[in-house]
Amino acid sequence: MPSFDIVSEIDLQEVDNAINQARKEVEGRYDFKGSKAEIQWDKKEVTLLAEDDYKIEAMGSILQTKLHRRGIDIKAIKFEKMEEAGGRMLRQKVTLVQGIDREVAKDIIKLIKDSKLKVQPAIAEDKIKVSSKSIDDLQECISLVRGGNFPVPLQYNNMRS
User: Fold this and answer.
1) Which among 18, 66, 89, 123 could disulfide-bond with 85, CB atoms 3.0 to 4.6 Å apart, if both were Cys?
2) pTM (2 decimals)?
């Protein structure tokens, strides 16, 4: 039976490249000369460290720009609140959102079921598997979900006929 998966994934290599570009830009900018400002990356989350909130916001903006240019959807990053890091430094964590959580998955399934398309959506871990007898219905389902406004970036893969 034809099917496809709705997923929310990030290309971590592109994130790594964007972070390296952002680091280079921060090192080269005049307003960061002589100050302690760094971007840390541990493959799960990004940490911005700087002396004041202006520099943290500037680094966040640089990071967003670099991620966007590398094809990472801005919905896939979530900025936490700034906090004291000791030594007159501020820290802000930036979380990368991967996978579809239960609440968003339920909203997507409700949208699909309300459309009365002849497809069967099912939650499988952090993705949604949609199957149908008709490939046309599956393509219509993709168009429908693409038109929805969800808080995570969605991709459609593993189309099997």
Assistant:
1) 89
2) 0.82
